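OP here, attaching both records as promised.
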Amino acid sequence: MHYGYHVGIENIREWLPVLLPLLIIQLILISVALWDLFKGTQSKENKWIWSMIIIFVSLFGPVLYFVIGKRDR
C-alpha cells in the first residue's frame, strides 16, 4: 500500500513547472545570503556556522540568516 504521489522519471515533465521556479528561488536565496554573509564584518567562526546553516537547512537557512544572522552585526 502506497500513500502520496508516485513521481518517477516519466512524470517529471508534469512536475517541472512547479519545481523549476522553486529551485530558482532557492538558488537565488542561497546566493544572496552567502554573498551578504561573506561581504560582512562578522567573525570567521560565525561565517562558517552561518554558511553551513544557509546551505544545509534548505529553504529556511537563508531566511533564518536574514532574520537572525543580520541582527548579530
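Record two, same layout:
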Amino acid sequence: MAAPPDPVQEAQRRALRRALTHPDLSLGELWRTFFALGGSLGPDEVEGFLAGESLPVRDRTLLAHAANQRLTERSAGLLVPVGPRRPRAARSAGTALATLLDSVQQASAGEFGLIADRVGRSRGVRLVIYLADDERRLLVPFDPVREDRVRGPLLIERTLPGRAFRSGRTQTALTGPHPRWWIPVFDGAQVTGVLDASPLDRHDLFDPLLRNEFEVLARLVGRLVTAAGATGDTVDATRQTRPRSVAAELIWRLLPPLTARTRSFSVSGLLEPAADVGGDVFDYALAPDHVDLAVFDAMGHALDAGLMASATLAAYRTSRRAGGGLQAQAAAIDAVLAAHFPDALVTGVLLHLDLTTGRLRYLGAGHPAPVVLRNARVVTELSGGRRTPFGLPVAGNDGLPLGEFTLQPGDWLALHTDGVEEARDEAGNFFGRQRLVDFLERAAAGDLGLAETVRRLTRAIMNHQNGSLQDDATILLARWRDPRKESS
C-alpha cells in the first residue's frame, strides 16, 4: 500500500510551480541558486520533483530557500512554505528597533553586544556583533564571552562571514547545529563588521521578511557602535589586534570614514601598517556638486612624521572649508609647516572635481602621480600641476598652472603614497607601478568595488613584503558615477 502524500511536500511542490510562473524566477535560476546554497541535485532531479517525485526534507528546504531568495516582498503570495512554524513573539520590527535605541542611550559601548542580543531574542534570533580589525584581516567578536563560550576572531578571507563583509550582502549558513545569517554591519556606506544572527527556530531562516528586519537592525547597530567609539575605548580596543603606536593613534583619530558614498561619488581608503603608521594620511570632502580629495606623506618616522602630517591635514582642511582653491590650500600648508616645522618635507596631491562637468583640477607636490582608470584600463597618469613638496616653498609656486583632466562617469581615480610602489620582497624586488596598475585593472574588470579593492590591494602589498613594511603605504580610490545612468 502506497504511503499517503506528505502534505508539506505537496504544498512546497505546488508553491514552487506557482513561483516559477513569476518573471523573476526561471527553472535555471532556481537550480543555480539551489546549487550555490549547497544543493547536490541536478536540474533533472529538480524537474522530477516538480513533476511529482519525492525529495528528502533537506533538498526540499534548500529548494524553498532558493526560490524565496529570488522573490521580493511584492511576491509574498508566491513564497514557498518550508515546514511547520512556531509562533514568533508578537513584537514588530519597529518595536525591536525602538527598544534597541532606548536601551543604548544610557549604556556604554561594552554593553551593546548583550543589548543587541536581548533585542534579537525578542524576535526569536540570537545575535553576536563582530567588528573588522584595523587591517581588515579579521572579524573580532565585540562581545567575546557569551554563555560560558569564548568566541575567537574569524578570517575575512575564505569564510562565509568574511564573504558577507567583503560583498556587503547577507550570507546564509545552512549547515552546522545553528543555521544563521551573516549580515553586514554598515555605518553609512562603510561595512564595519558583521552580525551573526541565528534564529532559535531554524525555519525562520527562510523568512525573507524577518531577514530584512535584521538587515535594518544591522545598519542601526553600525551607526550606534561608531557613535559609541567616540565616548570610550571598547570599540577601538576591539579593532586593534596589535597595539597602535602613538603616531598611529594620532593619525587614526584624524581620518575620515574609510569608505563613503553619495549618489554620484564613492571613495575608500586604507593605511598600512595600521598599528604603526607614521606620516601618511588622506582626506576627502563630498558635496552635491563637487568633491575634494587629498593624500599626504610626511617624511620621517614615528611621532615627528605624525605631527607633521596632522598639521598638514589641519591646514588643508582649514583652507578648504574657508573656500580656498587648490593654490590657497597649498599655500596654507606651506605656511603652517614653515612656522612650526622648519625642516619639514611633506609630499602630497590635492584634487578638486566638478561633478556637474567632470572637470578635474589637481596639484602634485613631489608625490607619485595618481592614475585614472576607464573601462578597467589605466588611461592616464595625472602628472601635471607639479610643484615642490610642501614645506619647501619656492618662489613662483603660487603661479604654477594646475593640472587638468576631464573625467567620464564610471572612471576610477587611484591615489597612493610611495610606500606602495617601493614595498620590497626578500629578494629586493619592488612591488612597482606596473604591478599596481595590473592589480587595479583586474579589480575594476572584476567589479570588486572600491572598499574590497583597497582591502585586497593592501593585503597584496603586505604579503609582497612578508607582512612587514619599511614605509607607510596608503591607498585612496574614488569613482565618479552618473546617477542618471546608475541606480547603485
